[in-house]
Amino acid sequence: MKKRRYNNFLYTIGYLIILRGVLMATTSISLFNFGIVFDLVLAMFWIGALGFFMKNRKSQKIYYIIVLLIATLFVIGDSVYYDYFETISAASSIEGLKWLTEGTTLEYDIQIPLVAYLITPLLIGGVFVIIKNKEKDVFNLKDFGVLSLVFIIQVILFLVWGNYNYDTRYEYYRSDSYLFETMYDREGFSEKYGYYNYHLLDFSRIRKTQDEDELFIEVDEFFDDQEVHVTNDYSDIYDGYNVITILGETLETRFINPILTPNLYLMKSEGLSFSNFYTPVFQQGATCNSEFMSITGMSAITSNDWSNNICDSYSNNTFPYALPNQLEGIGYDTYYFHSGHEWFYNREVVVPNYGFREVAFQEDLYEAGYDDFSEKYDSEMITFFTEYVDYTNPVYINLLTYSMHGAYNQEEFYKHDARVNSAYPGVEMDDEIRNYMQKLVEFDNMLGLIMEELEINGELDNTLFAIYPDHFPYMMNTNTYTEYIGVEKDSLEISRQELIIYATDMTGEVINNPGSTIDVTPTLMNMVDSSLIFKYFLGTDLFSNDDNYILFSDFTITDGVNYLYLNKELFGDEVHYAILESALELEIRALEIQKKLLIIDYFKMLVEE
Q1: What is the DSSP string of 61-83?
Q2: What CATH number should be reported for the domain whose range is 234-545?
Q3: b/e for 593-602, b at 16 or more Cβ within 10 A?
Q4: Prediction pTM value
Q5: In whole angstroms, what is the distance from residue 434 CA to residue 449 CA?
Q6: What is the pLDDT of residues 347-398, one digit of tens each?
Q7: Cβ density class 535-568: b for 16+ within 10 Å, e for less
Q8: Are strands 395-400 and 272-278 parallel, antiparallel or unpaired?
Q9: How far is Cα 514 from Cα 275, in angstroms, rounded to an integer?
Q10: Based on CB atoms within 10 Å of each CB, which residue in 212, 344, 598, 607 is the most buried?
C-alpha cells in the first residue's frame, strides 16, 4: 500500500482558503457562509484529481505553483474591480482589459490594492515551501474515492437547485435557484455557492439556446398589453423646440451651487427640477447603460447570464423608437457629440442605431484640424456646435460629457480652484471633493458657452434642455463621498440625483414624481410631440398620473420613499409592502422581457415582419 503524502497539496489548498479569506475581509462578502465548503470540496477534488495523474515530481510542483498564481491574480483583480464597481468581476469583465492596452484607464488612478500587500508574503512563502519540498505527493485511491463521492453529491445538489419548479415566477425570482441560474448577484453567489466555484461556472457555463420566434411572440404580447400614453398639462407645450440632452458624466446634483455652478443653478431654480429622480447603476459599463436607458426609454439588464454592457453586446441592434429616431421622423436634425474615443464601448456602431445622423467624437475633431482639442475639458465641446450644427431645421443634440470622470486628483483642473474658494470661503474639504468641484466648474462653463452659442444664433428661447447624471461618483473614495453628502454608505439614496429640464420661459417648479433614467425619453417626447409612439418604452412620462417605480440592478424597488429589497426587507412604512411587492414582480418581468428583446433584436424582427 502506498504511503499517503499530501504536503504540497495541503499547502495549495490552505493557500487558496486563506486567499479567499483575505479577499472576503477586504470586501463586504461574508466569509462565514456555506460557499466556503463548496470551495473547499471543489479545490480539493480538482487539484487532487489533476495532481493524482502527475507522475513526475517536478511537473506536479509546477502545477501547484500555477494554481497559486492564477488564484492570486483573480483575487487581486477582483479587489481592484471591487474598489470601483463594488462587486467582483465576471468573464465579460476581461473584455475591459483591451482598454488597458489602449492606455485609456489612466483616469481611473488604479492603485495596488491592500490585498496584494497582504497576500504577497503568503504567495512567496507558499511557492518557496512547494519548491523546497523534495517529495512528490502520493494520493491514496480510497481517499480520493471518498472525495469524489462528496463532489458528486455537490453536483447533484447543483442540478436539483437549477431545476426546481416554483408555483409562480415571483417565488422563483426570490429563490436561490434564480441566484444560482443567473448569477445576478456575484457576491451573493460567492457566499452561498463558493467564490472559486463562481468563477469556474462563470467561465464554463453553456448558455441555453432559445427559440427566437417564441421569444418574439412573448415580447410582442408584453408590449400589446401596455397602457396607452395619455396626454397631460405638459403635452406638446414645446412643440417645434430644439431639444438638447446632456448626460453629465458623474454629475452630482447635490453639489449645485449659485457661485460654483451658476448656469446649473439657473437651470435648476428657474426650470423643472425632478427631486425624486434616481440614476440606477448597471455595471459594468454604467455610462453606456445609462445613456442607452435615457435615449431609448428602456432598461439596461443585469446578471452574469448575459453581458450587461449594452454597447458592447447589442451595438448592432435596431432601435427605431429611440428618441433621436422618432424626432428625426418629424423633421429634426439629430446630432450626437462626445469628446472621448469613438471606439470606447463600441459607440461608433451603437450611436447611429439610436437614430443620430451626425455623430462626432474627438477623432473627428482632430481630423477636422482641431489639433489642440482636449477631451478632458467639457468647455471645449462647444467646438462640436461650431463645426457641425446647422439650425435650418429643429435640432436634437445629445452630449456625453467627460470632465467629471475620475480620478479626483487631476491637477489640470486646479485652475478652477478660485471658484471653489469663492463658493466655500474658508471651508476645509477633502482633496477629492475639491478636485471634483473643480471639474464641476468646467462642466458648468460648458453650459454657459452652449447658451451663448444658441443666443447668438437666435435659438436659445426655442430650446428645451434636459440635464441628468449617468451615475454617482463611484470612483471617489466611498467614505469620503457619502460622509460629505450625508448619506449612509450602503444606502440606495446615493443614487437619488435630480433631472433638470429647462427652457427660458419656465419660472421654476419642483416636481416630486418618482422617476429614473429610463423616464427621460418619454417625458421629453410628451413635451415636444405627444402623438409619437410611446408603446415600446419601459419608462414613464413623469408628468403622467401613472404610478411609477424605480428598479435597481440588485432588484430593489422604490416608490421614491419606501424601499423593498428582493429578500423582502422593507425600509419604510409597512402599509406600502404589498404594493411594492406587486410592483417588484411586474418590474422584474419587464426586465426579463428587456433581456429577450435585446437577445433576438426584437425591433429588427418587428420592422421586417
Answers
A1: HHHHHHHHHHHHHHHHHHHHHHH
A2: 3.40.720.10
A3: bbbbbbbbbb
A4: 0.82
A5: 23
A6: 889 999 999 999 999 999 999 999 999 889 999 999 999 999 999 999 999 9
A7: ebbbbbbbbbeeebbbbbbbbbbbbbebbbbbee
A8: unpaired
A9: 8
A10: 598
Cβ-based neighbour number of residue 7 at 10 Å: 14
Q: Residue 609 is placed in which grid cell? A: 415582419
H/E element, 579: helix 577-600
User: How distant, in Å, are the alpha carbons of 35, 92, 379, 471 from that of 193?
Assistant: 4, 20, 49, 30
Domain boundaries, the chain: 7-204, 234-545
Tell me if residue 236 falls in helix, strand or coil.
coil
Tracing cell 411572440 back to the chain, one arrives at 217
- C-alpha–C-alpha distance, residues 312 and 98, integer Å: 12
Strands 557-558 and 550-551 turn out to be antiparallel
Rounded Cα distance between 264 and 206, Å, is: 49
- Contact by Cβ (8 Å): 527, 238: yes
Instruction: Say which amino acid occupies 152.
Output: I
Contact 299, 538 (CB under 8 A): yes
Q: Are 84 and 113 in contact (CB under 8 A)?
A: no
- How many other C-beta atoms lie within 10 A of the C-beta of residue 312? 18
Q: What is the C-alpha to C-alpha distance for residues 513 and 577, in angstroms, rounded to an integer?
A: 19
Pairing mode of beta strands 496-502, 463-469: antiparallel
Return the pLDDT at 103. 46
Smallest CA-to-CA distance from 356 within 382, 337, 375 is with: 337
| Alpha-carbon gap, residue 246 to 582, rounded angstroms | 34
Largest CA distance in the chain: 94
Give the whole-angstrom CA distance, residue 125 versus residue 289.
43
CA angle 289–295–301, rounded 5-degree value: 30
Q: Cell numbers at residue 533, please?
A: 409612439
Cα angle for residues 571, 574, 578 (degrees, 5° grid): 105
Q: How many angstroms separate the CA atoms of 41 and 252, rounded?
A: 46
Residues sharing a CB contact under 8 Å with residue 434, sequence separation 6 or more, in sequence order: 417, 420
Name the strands in the sheet holding 570-571, side by side, starting at the edge strand that comes first in the sequence.
550-551, 557-558, 563-564, 570-571
SS3 of residue 585 by DSSP: helix
- Helix H or strand E encompassing 359: strand 358-360
> How many C-alpha atoms does 133 have within 13 Å on its Cβ side?
24
What's the pLDDT tens digit per position in 470-516? 888 888 888 899 999 998 877 888 899 999 999 999 999 999 999 99
Question: Whose grid coordinates read 475633431?
Answer: 365
- Kindly report which listed range (69-83, 399-413, 528-542) carries the lowest average pLDDT score: 69-83
Q: What is the pLDDT of residues 416-436, one digit of tens each?
A: 999 999 999 999 999 999 999
Residues 320-351: tens digit of each pLDDT = 999 999 999 999 999 999 998 888 778 889 99
DSSP state letter for 227: P
State how far the alpha carbon of 508 is from the alpha carbons of 241, 245, 268, 274, 325, in Å: 19, 19, 7, 11, 30
Strand, helix or coil at 274? strand
